[in-house]
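Tutorial, part two.
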Amino acid sequence: MALKDSQLAALIKYRSTLEKQAKAAYALAVDEEEAVKQNLINAEHERKAAIGVLETKQKEGIKIHELLTLENGISAIEEKISRCRKEVVAAKQKTTTAQKQLEHAMKERKVMDKLKEKHDIALAAEKKLKETKQLDEISIQKHRDTR
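Running the prediction step on this input gives:
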């Protein structure tokens, strides 16, 4: 079944909209992944700083409750780092999925563009054929009239 021009135009517009949505989703996923990675970097810097404070305090002499407080703080930071690493993995998966969806949407749009191109070529050929038939009929009619 051949598509009408309006159907083809609507289908192309729909595929283009899907591609735009996929691009936006991919851009958002990349931004989220970068934010999660930055959170991980920040947490690792925080841990390094907390360990530095602990080492400095140990050299100066530290009370047990201060030591426990610092160690508990470092432990909490390490838990935060663990969560951040899991979030990074999830964000990477989300980015990969969004990228695959974008690639699929782009392929679909390209297929529709090629279909439109073939459709336009077929319409042009059909139009040329009609014009040729009309010219032939005019020629035949003129030939009959001149007899």
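The first helix runs from residue 5 to 60. In part three we will examine how such features are distributed along the chain.
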